[in-house]
Amino acid sequence: MKGNVYFRRYWQLYALLVLPLAYFIVFKYGPMWGVQIAFKDFNFFQGITGSEWIGFDAFREVFRMDDFYRTLRNTIVLNLLDLLVSFPAPLVLAILLYELKVVWFKKLSQTILYIPHFISWVIIGGIVYQVFGTQSGMINNVLTSIGFQAIPFLTDKNDWVITYLLTGVWQSAGWGTILYLAALTGINRELFEAAEVDGAGRMKRIWHITIPGMKTTIATLLIINLGNMITIGFDRPYVIGNVAVRDYSDVLSTFVYRIGMESGQYTLATVVGLFQAVVGLIFVLGANYASKKLTDESIM
Amino acid sequence: MSERTANRTFDIVTTILVAVAVLLCLAPFIHILSISFSSNRAITSGEVTLFPVDFNLKAYGKVFSDMSMIRSLGFTVMLTVITTVLSMLMTMIAAYPLTKKNLKGRKTIMFMIVVTMFFSGGIIPEYILVRDLHLLNNMWSLILPGLISPFYLIILISFFNGIPESLGEAAEIDGSSQFGTLIRIVLPLSLPVLATLSLFYGVGRWNGFQDTLMYIQNPDLFPLQLKLYQMIQNNMVSELSRLEGASGAKITPEGLKAASVIFATVPILLVYPWLQRYFVSGVMLGAVKG
User: Fold this and answer.
1) Domains: count for chain A
2) Chain B residues 232-261 with CB within 8 Å of chain A
3) How far apart are CA B165 and CA B186, in angstroms?
4) CB contact (8 A) between residue A238 and residue B29
5) Using CA of residue B258, residue B263, residue B268, residue B269, what is the dihedral sign?
6) What CATH code is carried by the domain that includes residue A181?
7) Are the C-beta atoms of A248 and A161 separated by less than 8 Å?
8) Do the domain assignments include residue A205?
9) What residues contact B255, with CB distance under 8 A and at least 6 apart?
10) B residues 188-217 lying closer than 8 A (beta carbon) to A
11) Nearest CA to B209 among A104, A239, A6, A294?
12) E strand or H helix at A40, and its extent?
């Protein structure tokens, strides 16, 4: 009867869990079950179970595709460059914000700096076009009016990468300061006073107190970023990319969309998606392991 | 240089640097805003940078007289509200039981949920699932697949865990049911984090794009982002065709595009300041504990 008592006390909790669990089973585990498409000659009429097994044939085909290696390279290169450019930006910004003494100005700046994070990539794409466009973009208008050559930000491959990176900084630098500022609130103010008494200038205090105060956060975020090297969002490269720069803008997620949704090669697209998911998982687990070793803090 | 002047200089320099960052952050918005208020002639001749030239409201007149645009806005608002409400409901009812340490099977369920944060079937199996459920070209295809974010769920669980257990126990002794405790004690104490997660769910749906591209073909069900994307895409095509000396792409006038971008951004800018003080603390909570 013990079980009965337990159940009488807790049935409501299980009742609450029914719908959420159903959600996870259908919409999260359902697609995991559907991953078998990667090993099948998938055909809509026969469905997932009815389609014929083909083993690793589709994998062999994918690993023979030049496009696969190109998108893999682009994914990693764009992520690495993004890390190089976008990672230090919020750090510097957080230090500057932390040093501000005028409270209203600090609050106002933060409010404004967070906004781009809440703007969709589609809208950023629209803004990018108006700002960086070759014919009528703001920057090129200014450049040509003072006698310079227009820069083909959107249509030249190398210039496009710069556009891609700059929009990343613009979108995320402000938002990225939140975690650093959170870490900085934990610093004991007395440290600064003591340093001042010892004659340390502002730069010295930043170097010896502020930056060490963010050390764990920096390390953790760096590791998370490295763990995400192979995953890349769809919206940003898809919206900002275009046919002229496809050699550089086509990444794994847009590649999966293109061969799956546009060309209807479901099996091949699932293979690429599965590759990305498995390699991504290995990266994330590796990052978590590294994080545990280095900072005593696990991400999970 | 005396120490005081050094300090003053330092303060001035940091203030200027932050001000520059803020301006760089705002400049694209101001530019788009000016474009939306300028005449087509001024825009195409490149006269507009940070201030409107030939101020007029024609572009907005067009946006607001375009019924499909208004309908799309209405649909997106409705979609966002429904998604936010349902997502929050589901996240709350999932989080509460999972804070009970002696709930049998809790660890297994947690593990099941955490797994989905790191591994997923990918977009093709998701698409096939949505298709098999007959949800293509149906607004539920944009609501159901992302109903619960495991990440937000874990943030909520850790927040609930911070509420003293004795409060719930006291209520239970007083005869409160589990539902009662959740509604009368736990939720009222969690308002900041509930507001944060609502904002995140809402903004996520408002800005969502890839799923609309995959699941919606019927123009009557185009959310704003998809509509905007098509306008912008036309632009890219025209830019490229000009480059190659060809033409024929349908070009949306710049002013109209700018006005549409503003039109789709304003709603977020309206709710954002009200929720900001909550989400800053909410994010920090997620960062420290999650």
Assistant:
1) 1
2) 232, 235-236, 239-240, 242-243, 254, 257-258, 260-261
3) 10
4) no
5) positive
6) 1.10.3720.10
7) yes
8) yes
9) B35, B36, B38, B39, B40, B43, B58, B59
10) 203, 206-210, 213-214
11) A239
12) strand A40-41
Q: Establish if A23 belongs to a structural domain.
A: no
Cβ within 8 Å, pair B265-A16: no
From the candidates A130, A197, A275, which should be mutated to test the interface with B, based on the most B CB atoms within 10 A? A130
Alpha-helix runs per DSSP H in chain B: 3-36, 40-44, 58-65, 67-95, 106-118, 123-132, 140-143, 150-161, 165-173, 178-181, 191-207, 210-215, 224-243, 254-289
Q: Is the pTM for the entire model greater than 0.95? A: no
Chain A residues touching B214 at Cβ < 8 A: 257, 261
CATH 1.10.3720.10 fits B59-288, yes or no: yes
Q: What is the distance between the alpha carbons of residues A130 and A137, in angstroms, rounded to a whole number? A: 5
Q: At what angle do helices A215-227 and A266-295 cross, to 10 degrees?
A: 160
Centroid of chain to Cα A229: 9
Q: How far apart are CA A274 and CA B89, in angstroms?
A: 31
ipTM: 0.90
* Chain-chain contact of A131 with B31 (C-beta, under 8 angstroms): yes
How do beta strands A40-41 and A52-53 pair?
antiparallel
Q: How far is CA B32 from the centre of its chain?
A: 20
Closest approach of A54 to chain B, Cα-based (Å): 17
3-state secondary structure of B21: helix
**Which of A129-143, A228-242, B167-181 ranks highest by mean pLDDT?**
A228-242
Each residue's pLDDT tens digit, A245-280: 999 999 999 999 999 999 999 999 999 999 999 999
Residue environment code for A9-46, b if the CB has 16+ CB neighbours within 10 A, otherwise e:
ebebbeebbeebeebbeebbebbbebbbbbbbebeeee
* Residues B183-236 pLDDT 10s: 888 999 888 889 889 989 999 999 999 999 999 999 899 999 999 998 877 766
The C-alpha of B273 sits at a distance from chain A's nearest C-alpha, in angstroms, of: 8
Q: Residue A11 falls within a domain, yes or no?
A: no
- State how far the Cα of A131 lies from the Cα of B25, in Å rounded to an integer: 13
Is residue A119 in a domain?
yes
DSSP-based three-state secondary structure for A53: strand
Yes or no, beta carbons of A126 and B257 under 8 Å apart? yes
Domain span including residue A205: 55-295
End-to-end CA distance of chain B: 47
Q: Which long-range contacts (CB under 8 A, 24 or more apart) does A22-25 make?
A: A23/B90, A23/B144, A23/B147, A23/B148, A24/B112, A24/B113, A24/B116, A24/B148
